[in-house]
Design goal:
By secondary structure, this protein is mostly helical. 40% of the residues lie in helices and 0% in strands. The chain is built from one helix and no strands. It is globular, with a radius of gyration of 6 Å.
Length: 20
């Protein structure tokens, strides 16, 4: 998942926590 655009909260949830 691109750290610049946390679009998929399902995938980015691992990196961003829950930024959806």
């Amino acid at each position: 998942a691109p750290p610049s655009a946390p679009t998929n909260f399902n995938l980015d949830n691992s990196l961003f926590g829950a930024n959806h």
